[in-house]
## 1
Amino acid sequence: MNSNSILNKIKIYGISPKKFYGQNFILDENILKKIVERSNINEKINILEIGPGPGGLTHEILKSNVNQVFVIEKDKDLLPFLEDIKKLFPNKLNIILEDALCFDIKKLNNNPFKIISNLPYNISTILLIKWLTTDICNTSCMSLTLMFQKEVAERIVAKKGSSKRSRISIISELYTNPKIVLNVSPGSFLPRPKVNSALVYFEILKKPRFNHNQLRLKLIIDTAFNQKRKMVRSSLKKVFPNVELALKKVGIEKTERPQSIELKSFCDLSLI
């Protein structure tokens, strides 16, 4: 499905991207192909796609070596696009009209699956954190290939010491191996976003990288990164009555700032 055919269908059905849904449709056929290529589909497995829009990426996924494709779309106006594609792949495409934030990916656990999506930007990080922190290592999900604003993608993959390191960096590193695999310019989208975008590939780990207390870890990293310019002896004193003793137990220098702390140290701190 090339950009002209997508545009023609958009005109035929009288549909335009909705800002309140965070819709930015990808029209560039070359980019759609690259997204599927970067998803490393090496075996016939199931695919989950969030926010398929007019179905350009859906069509490209269905052309690859996949078993079943499940698409979750909240906007009922886009159903005609998806029904047209379903006619071409009648036994492969499953359309779910639902809010992706309410969908439990564990429903797909009967078979190995991957998630491939040009996510609506207004829910992209919310969805990612939800998936990663709801025991994703114990699902049959093998990987995520997701489009983000480039600035968000850079925060996701930021390593220790980077000024871009954040809460989402910590969570992504704990459950996955994240990597930026493609940069995408605004001209590939309709409407053109004001920022560049980037595709991130997440290899899901078989278990979290380190032992941790999830609730305590969330509290610690939320508190620390809410005041990321402060030394942790100051930002974490609300979490630990004797903050300097707690930091010393796990080998964290009290003068460090959160972006300079190893993931393991945060995890160890959550177990105190």
## 2
Amino acid sequence: MSNSKAISPRVIISLGLLYLIWGSTFLSVRILLEYLPPLVITYSRNFTAGFLLLAWSVLGGHWQKMSPKHWRVHLQAGVFLISLGNGFMSLAGSIVPSGFSSVFMALGPSLLVLFFWLDGRKPSLRKLTGTILGLLGILVLMSQKSLAIEGHEQDFLVGIGYLSVAVIAWNIGVFRVQVTSANTYHFTQVCAIQMLFGALVVFIYSSIRGDFYDVDLNALPPKAFAVFAYLALIGSMFGFSLFGYLSKACDATLVSTYTYVNPIIALYLGNLILAEPLQPILLIASFLILFAVVLISTDKQKS
């Protein structure tokens, strides 16, 4: 029996929107860093989106009683996904271009293969090949100081360190939720818990650092408010809503294609809007990483 079936127009539109929205968040963070400290951006966008998703979950009747074990899993996921994942990606945004960050974060599927392997699920040769190619692409990126934002070449390895923490933490969070079967609740409930707790951790740490003393809302231009609204409402709230819908409406392999489409969009937008250069070495590394993700996400081995 063929495993292909017609994809509804709603799914096609939702996929297209997810590609555009999540592919553009790297650029949005990069722009907002001109006006706000990175951790303030992480806290504010996730608290806003998390609060709205909580209201949606409760008022929409989607909230369910959650076991203590699943509460722990989602609180931990909030730290890994939001506090460390989003937080360190924002910290890297002032050092490396948005397109560079998006390609680096595409290493995620390769890391998940390694995590599941350590958990006892031996990968197929196809997945293993993809994982090696992805790691090779990252090594190519790490060797190129010239890819840093002009004037930040001396901080390039620091930016690599931030991105490494972000991509590893994000995929630990994803892995934990999957292996504990904690994702059976409505996406509004799950995302609200993760976003609000992750944002709270960032708020406490950012307050200790004194980041909020550097924020003067009256001095922010309308452009900053517009980009923030896009990040919180479209990038976080609407983006996660689309992801939740697609995860239940179609095959997981199809949903995972955002992992290798987003960097292409981010690279193009970064070049078009911020004139971030598309250097040949970046394109070579992008090809290696994205080809790796294609190999992994199209593998027919039972998960």
## 3
Amino acid sequence: GMNAISLKGRSVLGLQDFTAGEIERILEVAAQMKKIVLSDNKKRDFLKGKSIVTVFSEASTRTRSSFELAGKYLGADVINITKSSMTKGESMRDTLLTVSAMGVDAVIIRDSSEGAALFASKVMSPKVKVPVVINAGDGGHQHPTQTLTDLMTIRRRMGRLDDLNIGLC
């Protein structure tokens, strides 16, 4: 059934890589997580022992804070790398290689250049381990986590996701 769907180890570069069933599963879990976030006890240990790095070369306080809090709520250790903390002349590639060498479990990337998340997923060294990459927006290209948030809202308001006409303004 639906619960058999496993997304373990999957990167989220864009939603075209996911089936409708997988997206439904993500939204189901998100609804459960929302209840936890709104409860008095937000701390869970689902990601205990895991490390997450957010690499934001583009300022986005809401998105970065959301990921940081989510990681902490789930018990992961989270650190943030921003454009200002990337040393002079250090490219995104250098930053990603450093992050990869640290053995982190997940990298959440926000960058103004299209395809940055795909680039990140390819550049990190498999010698240590390749972290899961989550695209938190790559320019005018894709923002799959924002899309999932929008789908969650539509599903909550309309009761379904299929057979709808949606206008984007």
## 4
Amino acid sequence: MNRLVINTATDELFIALEKGDKIFSHSINSVMHHNETMLLEIDKLLKANGLEIKDIDELGVVIGPGSFTGIRVGIATVKAFRDVL
């Protein structure tokens, strides 16, 4: 099972990928500009581990506590992935 979890609630963008029994993570201090960096960083993490977004079985997003706008960005992204997949 492949899982992708993102946290956009804080100053640091955090992305975690579970591929089988291994966990890979990536974080970047984007000082609340997650909407500008998140998709590129997700793509980098997936490609580094030989996956594409269509290979993800479960998506997760942190819903707080944190920045209301940041949380909305994360939720909107996960919902868009869900709708496309």
